[in-house]
Design brief:
The complex is a heterodimer of chains A (203) and B (112). Chain A has 203 residues and is mostly helical. Chain A has two domains: 44 residues, no CATH class; 142 residues, Alpha-Beta Complex (Nitrile Hydratase, Chain A). Chain A is globular and about 60 Å long. Chain A is built from twelve helices and four strands; from the N terminus they run ααααααββααααββαα. In chain A, helix 4 crosses helix 5. Chain B has one domain: SH3 type barrels (Roll), CATH 2.30.30. Chain B has three helices and five strands; from the N terminus they run ββαβαββα. Chain B has a five-stranded antiparallel beta sheet with strand order 4-3-2-1-5. The chains are: A mainly alpha (203), B mainly beta (112). Strand 3 of chain A pairs parallel with strand 4 of chain B.
């Protein structure tokens, strides 16, 4: 969890960085974990990328039956693709012409890390967390996304045990594209709901 | 599940979040306390995070719901789309059937 007071102290030789180093040293000295185990876990953490989430979306776009399963049970459908997500409880929310979904954790920085990797800094920022529930359209505009008026916004506050993935609408003009081509147009921000995938016309 | 509390609410039920302000590791955002919404789904049963945070087992398992609030209901001066909503995960022990709602709605009022 990242708390705003911790953010400032987490840099360089800040309090939390030193605390983390001290706890790590102690755990190793006491033989509770090995340095290699820590390195492995950090490497695995850094290896996970939003491309896994993008692959899920691309597959849902080309396979309507898979899309149904993904919306009914997100975690099971992701595992179906051989993506290892541990005990993640995943809810997939679908954008439609009438509804735009956006994800936040107002309390801290809950994020589907097993699927999307590390959250971007803005996601943990107090400004995003406090404003996106209160004035989502204004915040989305600052991300460069202006929603047409008839679209209603559904903000999902990830406050407890569930994690969220946005299933964006497939852009016009991508008919006949391969799954690999589609995967490339799904950005991390589109999976959180602060951007839309871009089609060939930039739509 | 033997060690789990039975769900009291069904999808579509109108509920009100308790207007309480305890200290500790609370996963119920302040901005929805005292406000009413509708049960969107039952997410399952989970240990109580308010106890887990202090190294306790958090049992029995508690029903966790997603509650849908109209943004206009959360903030009377909400200035964006009229159909906008916020959906929040809330544990059953923070909910009561709507209608028994507290008279006071805003945290600011609660402290008055």
């Amino acid at each position: 969890m990242n708390h705003p007071v911790a953010d400032a102290a987490a840099t360089e030789n800040g309090y939390y960085r030193r605390l983390q180093a001290a706890v790590e040293e102690l755990l190793i000295l006491k033989g509770i974990v090995g340095r290699d185990e820590i390195d492995r876990e950090v490497a695995a953490m850094e290896e996970r990328s939003y491309r896994r989430g993008a692959a899920v979306v691309a597959h849902a776009w080309v396979d309507p039956a898979y899309r149904e399963r993904l919306l009914a049970d997100g975690a099971a459908a992701v595992r179906e693709l051989g993506i290892e997500i541990g005990a993640l409880h995943l809810i997939v929310v679908e954008n439609t012409p009438a509804i735009h979904n956006v994800i936040v954790c107002t309390l801290c920085s809950c994020y589907p890390r097993a699927l999307l990797g590390m959250p971007p800094d803005w996601y943990k920022n107090i400004e995003y967390r406090s404003r996106v529930v209160r004035e989502p359209r204004a915040v989305l505009r600052e991300f460069g996304l202006t929603l047409p008026e008839p679209v209603s916004v559904r903000v999902h506050d990830s406050t407890a045990d569930m994690r969220y993935l946005v299933l964006p609408m497939r852009p016009a003009g991508t008919e006949g594209w391969s799954e690999a081509q589609l995967l490339d147009i799904v950005s991390r921000d589109a999976l959180v709901g602060v951007a839309l995938p871009r089609g060939p016309e930039g739509s | 599940m033997n060690d789990a509390i039975e769900p009291l609410f069904a999808v579509g039920d109108r509920v009100t979040v308790l207007a309480q302000w305890p200290h500790g590791h609370i996963r119920t955002p302040i901005y929805c306390r005292g406000h009413s919404g509708v049960i969107e789904r039952l997410c399952g049963h989970f240990p109580n995070p308010e106890e887990l945070a202090f190294g306790l087992p958090g049992l029995p398992l508690r029903p966790l719901y997603r509650v849908r609030f109209r943004s206009r209901d959360l903030w009377p001066d909400y200035a964006e789309g009229g159909d906008d909503v916020v959906e929040i995960e809330i544990y059953q022990h923070w909910l009561e059937p709507a209608g028994q709602a507290a008279l006071l709605r805003n945290p600011e009022d609660m402290h008055a």
